[in-house]
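Friendly challenge for the regulars: who can give me the structure tokens for this chain first? No prize, just bragging rights.
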Amino acid sequence: GKKVIFAREFDNSTKNILDIQAIHNKKEYNLSIFIDLSHVAGNNYMIHSMSLAAVAAGCDGIMSEVHNKY
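First reply, four minutes later:
Bragging rights claimed.
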């Protein structure tokens, strides 16, 4: 079957960095790349622009956590 990679950074010093170049580089291995924007962006105002950049770089999917505000 087809392999899928989910990437997430757990180091606090780099956890809010989206490496756009890595998306393109991983595509040469014929893998599906999904970006978890809820953890990469760090702030909700960045999600829209970061999702556009990830799609432009060639990612196969985007996921994001959603929390209701009460």
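The first strand starts at residue 4 and ends at 7. The chain has three helices and three strands. Your move, everyone else.
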